[in-house]
């Protein structure tokens, strides 16, 4: 119970209403932390006008090439943003599978919940705006 108090609770993300009570579903503990990490990644910096520094700049990578240099820049920036904006986690490690499947990169995020020393992970799909290959006009 003390663990949940430290990690907190809040409205589940994405928001859901409990059909039996008509109230918003609450998320607590480790699940609350995981949803917070996901929310940071899904929010574009500047999107929340009262908190302009909240979120990541993932959209700036939408048209990137998937070279090791660009993936390294993305990985370092995401780790920094998560450590800066989610105080309940530490030891963030990010790996990105360089293989693009259906326009999607898989970002593997592992972190430690600081209070409990519990290892957690999240696989985040990042969709690139990949231009479809043009069909050849052979006649």
Put simply, the count of helices is 3
The secondary structure category is alpha+beta
How many β-strand stretches? 5
Average pLDDT figure: 86
Amino- and carboxy-terminal Cα gap: 71 Å
Poorly predicted residue ranges: none
What sequence of helices (H) and strands (E) makes up the elements? HEEHHEEE
Shape: globular
What is the C-alpha radius of gyration, as a whole number of Å?
Answer: 18 Å
Q: Strand content of the residues, in percent?
A: 15-25%
Biggest sheet overview: 3 strands, antiparallel
Short description:
Helix content is 27%, strand content 24%. It is an alpha+beta fold and 139 residues long.
Core attributes:
two-stranded antiparallel ribbon, 3 helices, three-stranded antiparallel β-sheet, 139 residues, globular, alpha+beta
How does this model look, in words?
The radius of gyration is 18 Å and the shape is globular. The longest helix has 18 residues. With 139 residues, it is α+β, with helices and mostly antiparallel strands.
Spell out the blueprint of helices and strands.
Layout: H1 2-7, E1 9-11, E2 26-28, H2 29-42, H3 68-85, E3 89-96, E4 104-113, E5 118-127
Antiparallel strand pairs: 1-2, 3-4, 4-5
């Amino acid at each position: 119970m003390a663990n949940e108090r430290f990690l907190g609770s809040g409205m589940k993300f994405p928001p859901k209403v409990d059909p039996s009570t008509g109230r918003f579903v609450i998320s607590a503990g480790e699940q609350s932390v995981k949803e917070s990490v996901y929310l940071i990644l899904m929010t574009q910096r500047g999107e929340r006008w009262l908190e302009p520094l909240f979120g990541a700049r993932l959209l700036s990578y939408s048209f990137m090439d998937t070279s090791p240099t660009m993936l390294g820049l993305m990985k370092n920036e995401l780790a920094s943003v998560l450590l800066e904006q989610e105080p309940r986690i530490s030891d963030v490690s990010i790996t990105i599978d360089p293989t693009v499947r259906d326009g999607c990169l898989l970002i593997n995020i592992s972190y430690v919940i600081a209070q409990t020393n519990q290892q957690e992970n999240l696989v985040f799909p990042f969709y690139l705006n990949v231009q479809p290959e043009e069909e050849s006009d052979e006649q």
